[in-house]
């Protein structure tokens, strides 16, 4: 027999069930950059530890001008070459990126496009962002992080079989996905 018909008797979730923060990055990048006569030449060493351990090397060439529209990428391990456009803003939160590439190991040429956003996710709200911290001249750390959340919700009803007052606490899952150490050498 229910003592208070308008109040839910479920046990509220604990704080541990409401949030999860993961500070172990799944991607670690070391980027070495050299600026030469209006171009930036970079060597990226990329280490992935989730869902499986992997390593990639990339050579990247791109113009330094503020109107940079492309970058050239060569992956020596996979023998892939790509030219990728910079992210083209379609709206304040949605970007389009287009690329053309060739795989020497597969003997195939193709193109890709990608729509990206810092917002949105699968049935939850998501914020994705990169934060940069300059340690000293030529040395930067960049952190790629995300936060998936469901906002709290308060509902109620009167004269129905639903409770008079009901509150869903919401959820937060945050993670540090990527850590990049960037070393840049500039010609003086």
TrEMBL record:
It comes from Beta vulgaris subsp. vulgaris (Beet). Residues 14-185 form the DUF7781 domain. It comes from the Eukaryota. GO terms for biological process: response to salicylic acid. This is DUF7781 domain-containing protein. Pfam families: DUF7781.
């Amino acid at each position: 027999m229910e003592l208070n018909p308008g109040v839910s008797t479920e046990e509220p979730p604990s704080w541990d069930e409401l949030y999860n923060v993961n500070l172990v990055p799944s991607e670690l990048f070391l980027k070495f950059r050299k600026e030469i006569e209006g171009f930036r030449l970079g060597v990226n060493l990329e280490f992935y530890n989730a869902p499986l351990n992997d390593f990639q090397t990339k050579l990247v060439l791109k113009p330094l001008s503020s109107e940079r529209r492309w970058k050239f990428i060569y992956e020596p391990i996979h023998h892939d070459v790509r030219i990728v456009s910079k992210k083209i803003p379609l709206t304040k939160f949605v970007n389009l990126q287009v690329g053309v590439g060739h795989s020497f190991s597969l003997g195939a040429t193709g193109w890709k496009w990608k729509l990206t956003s810092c917002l949105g996710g699968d049935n939850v709200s998501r914020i994705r962002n990169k934060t940069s911290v300059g340690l000293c001249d030529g040395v930067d750390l960049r952190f790629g992080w995300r936060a998936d959340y469901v906002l709290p919700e308060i509902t109620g009803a009167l004269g129905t079989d639903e409770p008079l007052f009901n509150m869903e606490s919401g959820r937060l899952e945050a993670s540090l996905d990527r850590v990049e150490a960037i070393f840049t050498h500039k010609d003086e």
